[in-house]
Amino acid sequence: MTTPGSAQPLPSRSGSVGDVGERGLIEHIRRRLPPAPASVVIGIGDDAAVATSDRGALQVLTTDALVEGIHFERRFSTPADIGYKALAVNVSDIAAMGAAPRYALLSLILPASLPFADVDGLLDGLIDVAKANNVTLVGGNITRSPGPLVVDVTVIGAVRPRRILTRSGGKPGDHLYVTGTIGAAAAGLGWLREPAGQGADLPEDSGLARCVLRHRRPEPRARIGALLGRSRAATACMDLSDGLADAVQQIAEASGVGARISAAALPIHEAARRWFSRDGGDPVAAAIAGGDDYELLFAISSRARGRLRHVIQQARGVEITKIGELTVEPTMRIERDGGGIEPLPAGFVHF
Amino acid sequence: MTTPGSAQPLPSRSGSVGDVGERGLIEHIRRRLPPAPASVVIGIGDDAAVATSDRGALQVLTTDALVEGIHFERRFSTPADIGYKALAVNVSDIAAMGAAPRYALLSLILPASLPFADVDGLLDGLIDVAKANNVTLVGGNITRSPGPLVVDVTVIGAVRPRRILTRSGGKPGDHLYVTGTIGAAAAGLGWLREPAGQGADLPEDSGLARCVLRHRRPEPRARIGALLGRSRAATACMDLSDGLADAVQQIAEASGVGARISAAALPIHEAARRWFSRDGGDPVAAAIAGGDDYELLFAISSRARGRLRHVIQQARGVEITKIGELTVEPTMRIERDGGGIEPLPAGFVHF
User: Fold this and answer.
1) Rounded to two decimals, what is the model's pTM?
2) Would you give the DSSP letter of residue A68?
3) Rg of chain A's alpha carbons, rounded to an integer?
4) Of A32, A269, B99, B102, which one's alpha carbon is 20 to 30 angstroms from that of B59?
5) Pairing, β B150-159 against β B58-67
6) CATH code, residues B175-343
7) Distance between terminal CA atoms of chain B?
8) Are strands B332-335 and B258-262 parallel, antiparallel or unpaired?
9) Which residues numbered 80-99 in B keep a CB inside 8 Å of some CB on A?
10) ipTM over 0.85 threshold
11) What's A202's DSSP letter?
12) Strand, coil or helix: what is B55?
């Protein structure tokens, strides 16, 4: 990011980002951010940011983009929702490594016609997640888009060497656990996509409204990821960005094992279950295929069950549910309610 | 990035990226990359990458996106040119801080119709720059674009605390220097945009062909940036992504001083000078306004001139030219050949 000229007029709150320009936007963002902690040596306004590393820790690096028309639609999500989610999905990736997020870079690719007020909205959501997770926005880049709005975020985290959680450490016999509930984001998006959905108002405390909120503002399990890393309770971990079925398959394959999960054990969000069942659909298939929940899936060896109890005690009300186990036989299977065993269907793929 | 299933078929060399899908593309990229050094603890294929920090060094963080239709056009640049430039411009930002680049994250936003072979092209160019600058691609993200091709790169570098070069350390009386030549990238792009330019073949050793090459493949001044940091020769430094006039203004404003440069001293690329003059145009105005040269502008105090000589000796044939100085009076001026002094025109702004 570059420092704007001191003679730069303050951007007007009306108008589009094309009127304000790159320098005006950067200066506006800089003023909106809370003061940076002492760990930030050079923040926004130079060729690059400079920051301290945690002593004795490794760097954890991840990037994820939200693209209009692919990951969100402006009629379904407010700018604040988009800014929130753009950072949240990256914090989720850091958490899935057992690491703590530290710094973020924000790459904004903006249609010139985007209302300037929408940039403030994006920042509102992003700053919320940054505050909640102790992340400092240290820099980035703003450029014009000839097409969709793109919000691309990089997060740099820190982890001690022995606390890293990978996908590949699972062993046969390890139990599989998942945080929170699954299927909510997919149900919420499904409702928004219904002809009746977009415009309709849901009561805020309804189950379906909570599903829509999960699509718009998934809560990264930063605390639980860090607890799992610190306690060395988990042998493998990843987040559910592409759904539970995908995550089970990824962990099993990376670990060179198979997996069996139990449909009856799955913590399917209640309103999502009703939504998926509404036309005689299969709520289990829909819930495990649905992406965007950003819960964590992890494996626990029999030795580590005491440590897991400790993590559960500190999880502040987030449920942690045993859903199955890793197996010697390298197949992915799901045990249905009636006792039948079926192959696990493939997960959600973004592309 | 996620690990593809082991049963994933090898992507075919024909077809589009939409046929290959995210997993196939990631696996293909992973196989194309050289083996990672021991500093990479977890590379491509987990929720995030994990890598060591340089002991006693600070992290340097930058991100920059190339957007089709804004920063490049596919009829003017090959996929390899685009991949090259996407990493090169980030390495340039790291160099401008006096730092060394270490790791890169690649965020690809791809139209589904993009030929799969073009991803190989992008990688060819990116890997060239990575090898030349000791950068390891450790992760990233691939998603579909409903519009333009976007290549967004993050580079993480390292710098020792006393070697950081900012924009804000300049003092009145410091001399301003620039590496290499200016105006070449703007002249090359100008030629490509002419009706005759796109299709025509230039002799490879012609001056204008070298200008086109500068637009397509700017050479980041990584070595000189690191030398300037290590020797503590410079009081301020930045790269010429948005042109010389802009960079002079940025350094002067960030340092709270003014600047005066001499038109006669400017190292304008010879073929660019001829190009800008062809219809009676002003080559100085065009050369200092033209962006994309990715040379370095830096300030040297009178005490540090001996250290600068040392840097020049190690610059391996890259010219370093004195073009002016920082002044107490907070104005930006240019001394014309005839001796007249004019305000420095504003630089190039991407948005």
Assistant:
1) 0.94
2) B
3) 21
4) A32
5) antiparallel
6) 3.90.650.10
7) 30
8) parallel
9) 92-94, 96-97, 99
10) yes
11) P
12) coil
Of B167, B180, B172, B165, residue with least CA distance to B301: B172
* Neighboring chain B residues of A239 at a CB cutoff of 8 Å: 47
What distance in Å separates residue B298's CA from the closest CA in chain A? 13
C-alpha A281/C-alpha A339 separation (Å) is: 19
Contact A166, A238 (CB under 8 A): no
Residue-by-residue pLDDT tens, chain B, 351 positions: 444 334 444 555 678 999 998 989 999 999 999 999 999 999 999 999 999 999 999 999 999 999 999 999 999 999 999 999 999 999 999 999 999 999 999 999 999 999 999 999 999 999 999 999 999 999 999 999 999 999 999 999 999 999 999 999 999 999 999 999 999 999 999 999 988 766 567 887 899 999 999 999 999 999 999 999 999 999 999 999 999 999 999 999 999 999 999 999 999 999 999 999 998 999 999 999 999 999 999 999 999 999 999 999 999 999 999 999 999 999 999 999 888 999 998 765 556
Q: Do A58 and B71 touch (CB under 8 A)?
A: no
Give the amino acid at A326: L
**Euclidean distance between the first and final Cα of chain A, in Å?**
30
Helices (H), A178-269: 184-193, 207-216, 222-231, 244-255
Chain B CB within 8 Å of residue A213 CB? no
3-state secondary structure of B277: helix
Whole-number Å distance between alpha carbons of A209 and A201: 9
CB A218 within 8 A of CB A186: no
- Decide: B112 and B17 in contact? Cβ < 8 Å: yes
Q: Where are the domains of chain A?
A: 17-162, 175-343
CA distance B107 to chain A (A): 7
C-alpha distances (whole Å) from B47 to each of A7, A237, B42, B116, B145 are 43, 9, 10, 24, 22
Instruction: Measure the CA dihedral B120/B125/B129/B131, to 10°.
Output: 40
Beta partners for residue B106, in sequence order: B140, B153
Span B17-162: which CATH code? Answer: 3.30.1330.10
Compute CA distances A308 → A166, A177, A233, B228, whole Å. Answer: 17, 10, 6, 51
Question: β-strand B136-145 against A58-67: which pairing, if any?
Answer: unpaired
B/e letters for B199-212, b = 16+ CB within 10 Å, e = fewer, are eeebeeeebbbbbb
Residue with the two structure tokens 């914090």: A91
Rounded Cα gap, residues B302 and B319, in angstroms: 20
CB B209 within 8 A of CB B260: no
Minimum Cα–Cα distance from B167: chain A residue: A46
Helix, coil or strand: residue B166: coil
Torsion angle of the four alpha carbons B273, B278, B280, B286, in this order, in degrees rounded to the nearest 10: -40
Neighbouring residues of A145: CB distance < 8 A, sequence distance ≥ 6: A109, A110, A111, B67, B70, B147, B148
